[in-house]
Amino acid sequence: MFIEKKRRFPLWEALIALFIYLFHYTGLIDVTIRGASPLILLPLTVAVAMFYDEHVSLIFGAVCGMSIDAVAGSSACFNTLTFTLISFGIGLLAKRIFNRNLAGSIALTVIASVIYFGAKWLFFAIIPDVQGKVYYLFWHLTPSAVYTVIFILPFFYLEKALTKKTN
Fold it and tell me: Which domain holds residue 157?
């Protein structure tokens, strides 16, 4: 292993997350396609978790989750908890197992999307025994998860460029 010089706080990533939050989650820009709405902050959180320490990514994930919970109507702290756990886990996986390349970032984003949308289906459709839970899984959550994974491409290259520039 080699020791890397790391930035302590993801300032540019926090500004990007704020920009995404202001324009996407407040309804100014709608990127929904046929009911599939991407969770744009999830790939950004994965990109930050890949290039930062797991503790920094944990805090970044918690802040992103809290910001989504601030505008979410029905999920009390669900996004905060899942984003925190996902970002910490992805940070550990990226540090110990996966390489920091595009294939690794796509794989980690797929893992994060499966965990997030699987937990969402479990806690909001299976446990409350909502009618139409299979329809909700296949026609809303699965396309949203696939749509979310696409956003790792620009965020990975942006994070890679920011890491090269500041280190």
Answer: 39-166
